[in-house]
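Work Package 4 report. The design task specified in the project plan requires that, given a folded chain encoded as structure tokens, an amino acid be chosen for each position. We show below one input record used in the internal validation round.
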């Protein structure tokens, strides 16, 4: 009961919390929303790993599926070379597209290898996933 309610609360929060009202381009808005959407499944996974949310293998697998779908959508969401003042995307994304793609694929592979069968498995995989976010942001996110 506690877990299901929380899952939906987190999903709702992720949907409501993006403040992209000043962004005019649909492409920029869409990629920002994609990034923001990582939060709900990641929060669920990290709370189950820490034990602040009851572990449920089915829900963990579902959150992984959501993460994976989002990760696989990164190349498509950035394929259009468009930016604007409110965007934090570095122009190097499009001049170094192959490298951006490689970072995106490495991140997707980290999500794919997440072991959702136990809280320890979740905890062990979270580091690699977080490193995947950071290794791309370090180069391709400018604010
Ligand atoms: C392959 C590259 C890449 C990966 C992997 C990646 N990001 Fe991003 N992220 C970006 C870029 C580029 C931006 C800036 C987009 C823009 O503002 O146009 C961004 C922006 C964001 C934002 C700000 C969105 C907004 O509303 O402005 C958040 C939050 C974010 N990322 C979270 C994450 C998390 C969490 C992960 C890992 C689970 C992750 N990102 C993985 C490239 C990446």
């Amino acid at each position: 009961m506690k877990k299901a309610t929380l899952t939906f609360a987190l999903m709702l929060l992720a949907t409501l919390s993006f403040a992209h009202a000043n962004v005019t381009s649909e492409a920029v808005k869409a990629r920002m929303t994609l990034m923001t959407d990582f939060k709900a499944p990641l929060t669920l996974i990290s709370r189950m790993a820490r034990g602040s949310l009851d572990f449920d293998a089915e829900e963990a697998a579902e959150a992984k599926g959501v993460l994976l779908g989002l990760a696989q959508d990164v190349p498509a969401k950035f394929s259009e070379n468009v930016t604007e003042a409110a965007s934090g995307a570095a122009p190097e994304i499009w001049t170094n597209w192959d490298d951006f793609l490689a970072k995106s694929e490495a991140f997707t592979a980290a999500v794919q290898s997440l072991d959702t069968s136990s809280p320890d498995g979740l905890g062990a995989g979270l580091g690699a996933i977080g490193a995947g976010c950071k290794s791309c942001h370090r180069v391709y996110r400018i604010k």
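Residues 119-140 form the longest helix (22 residues). Validation will be extended to a larger panel in the next phase.
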